[in-house]
Amino acid sequence: MTRLSERREPTRWVAEDAPTFAVVGKVNMGKSAVLATLLEEDDDAVIRISAEPGETTRCQRLSLVLDGRERLRFIDTPGFQQPIEALRTIRAMGADDARGPGPDTLARFVARYGDSDEFVDECRLLAPIVEGAGVVYVVDPGVRLHDAFLAEIEILRLSAGPRLAILNPHAESDDASRSTQTNEALWRDELGKAFNLVRTFNAFEARFAARRDLLAALNQIDERDRNHLDATLALLDTEWEERRDEAAERILRFLGTVLRLREHTNYVDDGAPEAARKKALTEANRRYFERIAELERETTNDLLALYRHRHTRAEAAELMTDELDLSHDETWRRFGLNRRQLTFAGAATGAAGGTWLDVATAGHTLGLATLIGGGVGGALAWFKGDALPTLNLSVGRPGAFGGRQLSLGPPKNPNFAWILFDVMLVRYRAIMARTHAARGDGRLAHQRSADEAESIVRQLESSRQKLLARWFREAQRNTEQGERDVQARKAIEATLAEIEQAMQS
Q1: Tell me, which fold does domain 5-221 have in CATH?
Q2: What's this model's pTM, rounded to 2 decimal places?
């Protein structure tokens, strides 16, 4: 989902081959937030989201572009400033019409006051509507419904075009939430008299499914564009699936890179070999985990860019030094598989290795290798599952001048790969939870809700755990996997889809 923006007012607002909607509302009712989330735009230079009134002072074109073509056009308009006075003037101008004021009256109002200093914002926001744009009216149901809003609703009703009203709640406190519930019924009753459809859309919480549903609602207010909008939704679904597939590929690539990662260092085997060895090990260990943190940050930033969060960045320090510190036993209790799951997954990988031996020996082991392999794999997982990571260490022979080379990595703990996978799934969930209306400090943060399970991989079905365990094992051995890579990517993609689905409920 991408956008086109136009800062200068064009000669025509309405597109010839793309449904066009003017997004209207009083200042600070959430128009810009709705557009930012709907169009996946987090750049303040394009859509400014601010608590300061009057941020949008001119109309701005924002377009949904899919497959290289403009599919929908939205016009971000300035808020009403004098709705009661404007309605009074419009009614006076239409007093001689047999059926009262209507679309022609609005056109005369814009023509008369468009070049004057009166009703500046009203003329600007009505110009696209007079030209033929539909209306998307955004209100905060937590705000009391008063006469100025009633005047806005009536002016927009006079346009007689397709009209969708959006209730965009801003409630944060319990008192504000109760106020929203009280006012919403009043808003719905009044909006239902003037609009084809009324929908609730929280721009700061809406996921992909909610954005899609809102776009689908446009079909219900003007059936003339049904075929075009159906095709647009199909393109939107295809693009989202392609993104998820690419996200799975990048996570798989990250896991493979880390599982094959080795850190090499040298030390001099002189008069104090143990001290030199310890110092070299400490430094190599630090570099090893710093490299993992950097790879995680790079992958997370790739995922952020994939989902159009261009102005949000992940912090490398969050992975290894805060809540996901691989040197802290709390991480190994909260993330990755539990001991029972590790046992079964370890047995599956051990059995897979034994099966290969049975095949290689033409079955002459009578299946004992499979049995033994499964037992050993499960036992190792059971005894090492809760242990802190101890890096595999390889010490080279002394060189001609007494120096030795150390090679470290990966950790011996079989839960290492699962914790890394959990880390990326937690990051993915945080990205899915972040809407483009959110600005903040531009950093991706994981804030776990009270009822949200910490480990995601523990919730995976057993068959998927076993499949991924085999892939982890072969990746750690730096073995070419071919078809198993494809299966692992599909398993990761299915997991990402499940995360998205869980967030909709």
Answers
A1: Rossmann fold (3.40.50)
A2: 0.82
